[in-house]
């Protein structure tokens, strides 16, 4: 039986009014809203808290620095009470362990965010990855970084839906798998390379899919989000 797959709506904008309107539009369909680098840098972290309101917040800051700095950053943002928080697995074991330790110390036990390690960005294909020095392909790198992240105490992985099956084979059912690079049939891939439709990602076993522009750039974001939620419900 397929796992239940939820929708996370990526609200990528610089404008708090637009973000708030999108958050309201996707509210009935999405299990969380994702606010990330663009919004936080432009609007500030108080606006992040305001837009999320009572909706679970996926805080996508993709932390990647030395362990001391990442640990301190996690402590500093604990007041935002994110439900999920991202960091780059390529920052290494000690960096991820520092993030986990900071979470354990700075958050109440019942409010610790789910830590998600980004493995290989969905905008990278094997060729682009090879240009960074990783020559055995996205799948192998996702597996390598996924194993490392879990050993370091990370709760889940951000990957493309193409890597779900090999990750489940290698790591079992426990890790949360969160997949961006989702495109409903007929929509533009844009800068995304390793893409799947919502229904395909559900069949593959994603716990969450992350969808931005196919919702936010639709003529009717509420309807676009509802259609994706319906596709996930099968
Ligand atoms: O961490 C992420 O959320 C993320 C990781 C990744 O590998 N690929 C990826 O697209 N994302 C995010 O997922 C969202 C995808 O947006 P759309 O391409 O507009 O659907 C963006 O906010 C990205 O920052």
From TrEMBL:
Domain (Orotidine 5'-phosphate decarboxylase): residue spans on this chain: 6-228
Any one GO BP annotation for this protein: 'de novo' UMP biosynthetic process
Pathway assigned in UniProt: Pyrimidine metabolism; UMP biosynthesis via de novo pathway; UMP from orotate: step 2/2
Residues annotated as the enzyme's active site: 60 (for ompdecase activity), 62 (proton donor), 62 (for ompdecase activity), 65 (for ompdecase activity)
PROSITE patterns: OMPDECASE
Pfam families reported in the protein's UniProt record: OMPdecase
EC number, as in UniProt: 4.1.1.23
Gene3D superfamilies (UniProt xref): Aldolase class I
Reaction(s) this enzyme catalyzes, per UniProt: orotidine 5'-phosphate + H(+) = UMP + CO2
Top-level EC class: lyase
GO (cellular component) term, any one: cytosol
InterPro entries for the chain: Aldolase_TIM, OMPdecase, OMPdecase_AS, OMPdecase_bac, OMPdeCOase_dom, RibuloseP-bd_barrel
GO MF terms held by the record: orotidine-5'-phosphate decarboxylase activity
Keyword vocabulary terms for this entry: Decarboxylase, Lyase, Pyrimidine biosynthesis
Xref: SMART domains: OMPdecase (SM00934)
Keyword Lyase: yes
Binding of substrate, residues: 12, 34, 60-69, 122, 183, 192, 212-213
NCBIfam families, sorted: PRK00230.1, pyrF
Family that this chain belongs to: Belongs to the OMP decarboxylase family. Type 1 subfamily.
Function of the molecule: Catalyzes the decarboxylation of orotidine 5'-monophosphate (OMP) to uridine 5'-monophosphate (UMP).
Subunit structure: Homodimer.
Name by which UniProt lists this protein: Orotidine 5'-phosphate decarboxylase
């Amino acid at each position: 039986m397929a796992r239940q797959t939820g929708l996370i709506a990526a609200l990528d904008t610089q404008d708090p009014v637009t973000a708030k309107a999108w958050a309201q539009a996707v509210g009935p369909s999405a299990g969380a809203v994702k606010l990330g680098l663009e919004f936080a840098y432009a609007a500030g972290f108080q606006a992040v808290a305001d837009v999320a309101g009572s909706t679970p917040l996926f805080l996508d800051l993709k932390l990647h620095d030395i362990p001391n700095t990442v640990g301190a950053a996690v402590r500093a943002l604990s007041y935002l009470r994110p439900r999920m928080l991202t960091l780059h697995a390529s920052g290494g074991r000690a960096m991820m362990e520092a993030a986990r330790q900071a979470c354990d110390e700075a958050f109440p036990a019942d409010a610790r965010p789910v830590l998600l390690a980004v493995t290989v960005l969905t905008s990278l294909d094997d060729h682009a990855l090879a240009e960074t020095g990783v020559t055995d392909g996205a799948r192998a790198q996702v597996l390598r970084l996924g194993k490392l992240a879990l050993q370091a105490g990370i709760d889940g992985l951000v990957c493309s839906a193409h890597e779900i099956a090999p990750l489940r084979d290698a790591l079992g059912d426990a890790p949360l798998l969160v997949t961006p690079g989702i495109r409903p049939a007929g929509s533009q891939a844009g800068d995304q390379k390793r893409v799947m439709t919502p229904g395909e990602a559900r069949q593959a076993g994603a716990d969450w899919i992350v969808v931005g522009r196919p919702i936010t750039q639709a003529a009717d974001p509420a309807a676009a989000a509802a259609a994706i939620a319906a596709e996930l419900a099968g």
